[in-house]
Design a protein that fits this description.
With 220 residues, this protein is mainly β. The protein contains 1 helix and 19 strands.
């Protein structure tokens, strides 16, 4: 998926989610991953908990909840052994535990599925909206922030005591005759520190893909 904010290929190395088998004390954590100075915990209930480290003396905790309903986490795409060894050598992962390229949260709303991938520059989120899905149902809640706004270039800024955490401008597209047709999309701020999407016209007889990424904060 095209990511206009990324300018260096070295920033786009895909790493893995690590299965929590006791490394993290919280038994509700199913998987965790690292990017930049951030650890993201994928909890069994589907909540994403981010631990941002602006400096060695402070941290910022943000929780992101995609749906109020129960989810089923499915880890997919274990990397080849040689890739795991390379990641361990570079310090990206702990190779003694199960690692996965993709975590699926399944159907978080009727006809809407969510997949997660992690790269060295951030956490990628992929929403697939089937013809039965309705983008208006997507209402994502945030906890641990001071405010929320959309900046001039369409990124979502999450204000904290140490600066802004940013979500990249969303990208939406449909596959039409083996080509990606871009669909107009922007963030929609909801009440009580939530967000969704405002989506332009698209063919509701075909699946719609939405891609966005949680990136580092301004303080990093």
């Amino acid at each position: 998926v095209e990511e206009p904010e990324v300018s260096h290929m070295s920033d786009r190395i895909q790493t893995t989610f690590i299965e929590n088998t006791g490394q993290a004390a919280d038994s509700e954590i199913a998987f965790f991953a690292n990017f930049l100075n951030v650890t993201v915990f994928v909890k069994k209930n589907g909540i994403l908990s981010y631990d941002f480290l602006p400096d060695e003396n402070n941290n910022v905790l943000i929780n992101e909840t995609f749906t109020p309903q129960k989810v089923t986490l499915v880890p997919l795409e274990p990397p080849p052994t040689d890739i795991v060894a390379l990641y361990k050598q570079r310090g990206y992962i702990q190779a003694d535990y199960a690692n996965y390229y993709l975590i699926s949260l399944g159907e978080i709303y009727n006809g809407i599925e969510l997949d997660l991938r992690v790269f060295t520059d951030g956490l990628d989120k992929f929403l697939t909206i089937s013809p039965q899905g309705n983008t208006e149902e997507i209402q994502i809640k945030l906890e641990g922030i001071k405010g929320l706004k959309v900046d001039k270039i369409g990124r979502l800024e999450l204000a904290t005591d140490f600066g802004a955490v940013k979500l990249t401008k969303p990208i939406a597209f449909q596959e039409v005759e083996n080509e990606r047709k871009p669909i107009e999309i922007s963030y929609r701020i909801l009440k009580d520190s939530g967000y969704g999407f405002k989506v332009g016209k698209y063919d509701k007889k075909k699946p719609l893909m939405i891609h966005f990424k949680t990136r580092k904060g301004e303080y990093q």
